[in-house]
Amino acid sequence: MSRADAHLSGARISLRADTMIADVESLASQIVEGSTRALARGLTWVESGGARAEALCARLYPSTGRAQVVGLTGAPGSGKSTLARALALVARARGRTMGILAVDPSSPFTGGAILGDRIRMNDLALDPGVFIRSMATRGALGGLSRAAADAVDLMDAAGLGLVLVETVGVGQDEVDVMRLAHTIIVVSAPGLGDDVQALKAGVLEIADVHVVNKADREGADRTVAELRAMLTLLPSAEGAWIPPVLPASAARDEGIEAIADALDSHMAYQKTSGELERRRQKIVTARVLRIAQDLVAEAVLAGALGPEGAARASLLERVVRREMAPHACARALLAQAASRASTGS
Ligand code: GDP
User: Is the CB of 85 under 6 A from ligand 1?
Assistant: First the structure.
């Protein structure tokens, strides 16, 4: 490249950077002013990740921290989407605005379900006080919890008072996403087979509020009793919050006020006990750690295709040949990444 060309391409890069800054600035202002179109666009940026999304989130971060963030999880078919809709109606009746983020963790197969959720929520779509978004994070840079946390920030900055994050299923990814919430609702329902058993595998511990949905169905009383019995087995410190087990029928709008009350009580408990500050710290720590992990993994692995790739590949090759232990290789790669970072190469 000639010097003139290099100069020109440098100018183009800085022009692009300037345009990006202007775009970010304008979108951020519109989001803070409450434009739902701008919010929708910002969420699309966040879905795909990258420098633009990072700049937008950084610009909006000082405007966040006001929303009450509620996580909603539970087995597929337990009625989470129906409950989200019912909770939105109650929140609106109580004069609150609400954002619903339906997170689809992985597969193309659940795409239909998310679309179904959208249709079910259609009556809410006309209410400007409710913002609904399903997020396909398949392939999103930095993973599901990064994208979900950024999306919640955008909704928070847009002034939505209550942000409900709904995840499909109860796997580890969902538990990670739930950890960004101030209050976590775990939904179960009678007749879903081993649902209460499945809850044992980690989800029971994260619930602040249990909802046994489909209380209109037979067996609901037993599910409530089983859950209550199981909760007594969990260790609980003196004065700690005891998760209530609330029967509800989301499809009939029954028991929803009690759930909304429980969300408020949990928030009030957290404020007076100092738990809210601790939880906020935990949320931030987990989030920053995740981002840092992703950055480290990127620095260590992405460079394998760069000019030093051959050297790194040969390190990996040595592990394959049993000449080097995996731990030592990982440390060596990390050291290389760190030295590249410090020399800026
Ligand atoms: P999700 O997969 O957890 O989001 O569950 P959905 O909200 O899509 O609900 C799954 C099915 O259960 C749908 O057919 C709903 O109509 C039905 N459902 C939801 N809530 C209730 C309820 O309270 N009672 C009964 N009988 N069915 C319900």
Answer: no
Residues 24, 119 within the same domain: no
| Residue 114 Cβ contacting ligand 1 at under 6 Å | no
Instruction: State the pTM of this model.
Output: 0.85
Give me ligand 1 centre to Cα 203, in Å.
Answer: 20
Q: Which residues contact 121 (CB under 8 A, 6 or more apart)?
A: 81, 84, 85, 88, 100, 132
pLDDT score, position 234:
78
Together in a domain, 240 and 293? no
Residue at 51 is within a domain: yes
How many A from CA of 219 to the centre of ligand 1?
15
CA distance 76 to 94: 29
Tokens found for residue 184: 């976590």
Residue 278 lies in a domain: no
- 324: tokens are 């080097």
Q: Are 173 and 145 in contact (CB under 8 A)?
A: yes
Residue 85, pLDDT > 60, answer yes
Q: Which regions of 75-143 does DSSP assign to beta strands (E)?
A: 98-104, 130-136
Is 163 in contact with 70 (CB distance < 8 Å)? yes
Question: Cα separation of 315 and 333, whole Å?
Answer: 8
